[in-house]
Amino acid sequence: MPQSTPSASLPTYPFVYLASQSPRRQELLSQLGVRFELLLPRPDEDAEALEAERDGEAADRYVLRVCVAKAEAARARLTAGGHAAAPILVADTTVTIDGAILGKPDDVGHAVEMLARLAGHEHEVLTALAVIDAAGGLLPPALSRSTVRFAAVSPDALQRYAKSGEPLGKAGAYGIQGRAAEFIERIDGSYSGIMGLPLFETAALLRTARVDF
Fold this sequence. Notes:
single chain; alpha/beta; Maf protein; seven-stranded mixed sheet; 7 strands
């Protein structure tokens, strides 16, 4: 089926605002050929409050809720800053195993605990996407769901990996594109989604928002 293209009667946009500090998301967006400008939180914004879990909240509902909240915060940021009109792209990733949500580790010890929980088991990586169109409307969010199987890994290997610093700042305490690849037996789903920006869903949303790429 051919991909849909924006109507010639409607304006298109040469770039998108990316509300993410993740170098991986920036690299993946560039891989699509999408121009972007960063739209990052102001110092007075409490990003951690947006990511706070709610009791009994399922991981898929959690990541979608957080993503939409971040999109709404980015929309307010854009409006207040007097920027040029263009769509905004927001993504949020979480790791879940046995119903528990594994966010970003607090320190090396916490990273080791998370990795030990993943070793020898399957877990899910969920990445939610939200786009605010140039008129300020929220498009229906998308959710990428992938399964990752970790091999059984020795405690020494987990310690070495955690001390490398790579797990810090990453949901589930690992990055599939880095050294943790040696622990991963298989994946079922989207590799780019596990990295933090599922390209298939991203391209579809950006075309709906009339981003030209």
